[in-house]
Amino acid sequence: MPLPDSSSRDILHTRSITMHGYLRSDGLVDVEAHMLDRKPEELVFADGRRLAPGEPLHDMAVRLVVDQNLCIVDAVACIDASPYRVCAEAALAVREVIGFTIGPGWSSMLKNRFTGRRGCTHLSELLRPLATVAIQALWRMRKDAPEKTDGQGRPLKIDSCYAYAATREVVKMRWPGHFKEEGTP
Q1: pLDDT exceeds 80 at position 132
Q2: Which InterPro entries match (predicted)?
Q3: Which residues contact residue 31 at a Cβ distance below 8 angstroms, ignoring those fewer than 6 apart?
Q4: 40, 66, 115, 176: which has the fewest C-beta neighbours closer than 10 Å?
């Protein structure tokens, strides 16, 4: 179902983000994000540079290389267009995620390492959802792995999202022993 119609309007900004996951010949997985921002009007930067309407304001990409356990074994970024020339230097900060494992605490780690003067806001915005892309990309290789559970044997997926709420039909079908009727503790 598409969004409902809106009022008459003029475009102010376009941001396109594409993300892909690739299985490499060495068994590792590349997850990549590319972001492109465009404005419909000419921009003039503080240093006098001009950006024609529709030319990229931001053009940046990130690649994470992860193993089957979601450990990041390599990371690289590039900034091909930005408002300030110095922005391209921020791409090097992405290498700081090497050695981290995608999972609980991912967003907090990014916030602590890439906010303010330590990193690029836009690259950080790309790194957050790359975690989900990595998980989705590895699905085929991990689909037959045992379900992760807590100490009581309850699958960790339960209550991790709307569909997996303990009171929903998905839990009733997949894990009937953990299903809860609406309103029960």
Answers
A1: yes
A2: DUF2889
A3: 19, 20, 21, 22, 63, 64, 66, 130, 133, 134, 137
A4: 176
- pLDDT tens digits, 148-184: 899 998 998 899 889 999 999 999 999 998 999 888 7
The tokens describing 138, both together, are: 């590895």
Comma-separated ranges of CATH 3.90.1010 domains in the chain: 14-142
Question: Helix (H) and strand (E) counts for the chain?
Answer: 4, 6
Q: Which two tokens stand for residue 132?
A: 């989900």
User: Which CATH number applies to 14-142?
Assistant: 3.90.1010
Q: Mean pLDDT, the chain, as a whole number?
A: 92
Residue with tokens 């990549």: 32
Q: What is the CA radius of gyration of the chain?
A: 21
Amino acid, res. 134: A
Closest CA to 72 of 30, 133, 107: 30
Q: Say if CB 65 and CB 28 are below 8 A apart.
A: yes
Beta carbons within 8 Å of 183's beta carbon, 6+ residues apart = none
Quote the pLDDT of residue 113: 81
Residue 65 — pLDDT band, cuts 50, 70, 90?
very high
Measured CA to CA, the distance from residue 112 to residue 115 in angstroms comes to: 6
